[in-house]
Design brief:
Belongs to the initiator RepB protein family. It holds the Pfam family Rep3_C. By secondary structure, this protein is α+β, with helices and mostly antiparallel strands. It has four domains: about 160 residues, Orthogonal Bundle (Arc Repressor Mutant, subunit A); about 100 residues, Arc Repressor Mutant, subunit A (Orthogonal Bundle); about 90 residues, no CATH class; about 35 residues, no CATH class. The strands form four sheets. Strands 1-4-8-7 form a four-stranded mixed β-sheet. It has a three-stranded antiparallel β-sheet with strand order 3-5-6. α6 packs antiparallel against α7 and α6 crosses α9. The longest helix is centred in the last third of the chain and has 37 residues.
């Protein structure tokens, strides 16, 4: 992630933002803005994103003002008909009167909420190509001089998205994937934590909040189609991401969504590939992380158990994707079950899972095992509430281990004199037990 530095904001030079090199243009926003609720439809949202991409972070805009070309603005929206000027004016009107962000920030013991109209002033003429856009002063801290908790993504990706939901979801996925790339390169997080950024989870409630659909698409199948399926179809087709998802149930209801993000390979233009340093670094990081997880999986006792229950084959042991997937997503859940029921509890679970496995699930054994254990752990927790004696299973400890809790310096050492005295006492006790010397 690059750091945005403060610079001279008093330049009087007026530069009209050009879209000629749109592939190189980036948008940078604070994560609080990424997770805010955008109370606007796609057109005002895309105008805002376009305007943000015109902020020169090396020469910050005077009076929070940038200038756009109308013709290039129409190009961005792929508008060429005679009514484009009228529609542009309508979009500006909506943006100023109805479009705003609801931002939630952590503050002390709770949260602070803000409602900000991001672009309160727009000026243009019918005889000139230039459009003046002024950002509200309250939105600027989320756009400039950001040193942490920010996300950067490509304007060209947003340009092709035609749904408000796909834009919001793309920004949220970018926020998580940026953290995956950052911590993969810099460290500071455990392997499982890093992988969670590439496979982020969000509750349905939170997803409805950021997409502003709390009161819309009440039926889950309709919500899935409109907000998830349609958006991901656009994202996968037009952006640098390939994204899949799975639903996680809690009881009978869908509680959360887990996304799986992969970055696309670049086009076969060799010069373009060589310039994509981020892609090359990401590829190397993925390979290194996958290798590390594979080694850990091969050493894990759970791999042996899966083999014994015929849930893994010897051929699977040569597949790094399967082994790294198990280590990242399945084995941590087995650790939870082991803590509650011991290793025997894990074996019992695997025996049941093996008996229920269908042929189709063998094609994606990681997903099958992950789904199975995620469905079983809530049952274990419920059993522990109903039968406390089953909770927190732990292997009985030896007398020596218990003694060490009370005698930290305890050592199992006996002197020769003490051994001789013990042998004498034992001999006397044996005589009495045999009735001798009475």
């Amino acid at each position: 992630m690059e750091i945005i530095t403060k610079n001279d904001r008093n330049s009087n030079e007026r530069t009209v933002c050009s879209l000629k090199e749109i592939e190189k243009r980036k948008i940078v926003e604070h994560n609080d803005l990424i997770t805010s609720v955008a109370k606007m439809d796609k057109t005002p949202l895309k105008i805002f994103e376009l305007a943000v991409s015109c902020i020169d972070t090396e020469n910050l805009p005077k009076d929070n003002t940038i200038y756009l070309s109308k013709e290039e603005l129409f190009t961005f929206f792929d508008v060429s008909d005679n009514g484009k000027h009228t529609r542009f004016k309508e979009a500006i009107k909506v943006m100023q009167k109805e479009a705003f962000f609801e931002i939630r920030e952590e503050a002390g013991k709770g949260f602070k909420f803000k409602s900000i109209v991001p672009i309160p002033y727009v000026e243009w003429t019918d005889y000139h190509d230039e459009v003046k856009i002024e950002f509200h002063r309250e939105i600027m801290p989320y756009l400039i001089e950001l040193k942490k908790n920010f996300t950067q993504y490509a304007l060209s990706d947003v340009m092709e998205l035609n749904s408000k939901y796909s834009i919001i979801l793309y920004k949220w996925l970018s926020m998580n994937y940026n953290q995956y790339e950052h911590y993969s390169a810099k460290g500071g997080r455990r392997v499982n934590q890093i992988e969670s950024y590439r496979n982020p989870s969000i509750t349905v409630k939170e997803l409805r909040e950021i997409t502003d659909t709390i009161h819309e698409y009440k039926d889950m199948s309709n919500f899935t189609k409109r907000v998830l399926d349609n958006s991901l179809k656009e994202i996968n087709h037009h952006t640098s991401f390939n994204v899949t998802y799975e639903k996680v149930k809690k009881g009978r209801s869908i509680d959360s969504i887990v996304f799986h993000i992969e970055k696309k390979r670049m086009a076969d233009d060799n010069s373009y590939k060589l310039d994509d340093r981020a892609y090359q670094e990401d590829k190397a990081r993925k390979a290194e992380t996958e290798d590390m997880l594979t080694v850990q999986a091969l050493k894990s006792p759970y791999t042996k158990l899966l083999m014994e229950h015929f849930l893994l084959s010897y051929l699977d042991l040569t597949d790094t994707k399967i082994l790294s997937g198990l280590q990242a997503h399945v084995y941590p859940l087995y650790d939870e079950l082991k803590e509650a029921r011991g290793l025997k509890g894990v074996e019992t679970h695997l025996s049941y899972v093996a008996s229920k496995q269908e042929g189709y699930s063998k094609r994606n054994v990681v997903k099958y095992l992950k789904t199975a254990i995620e469905g079983y752990l809530p049952t274990v927790a419920l059993q522990d509430l109903e039968q406390p004696e089953r909770a927190n299973y732990k292997k009985p400890r030896s007398l020596e281990e218990v003694a060490k809790d009370f005698l930290p310096d305890y050592q199992n050492e006996t002197s020769e004199a003490e051994k001789e005295e013990l042998r004498r006492l034992k001999a006397e006790i044996d005589k009495k037990l045999r009735g001798e010397g009475l």
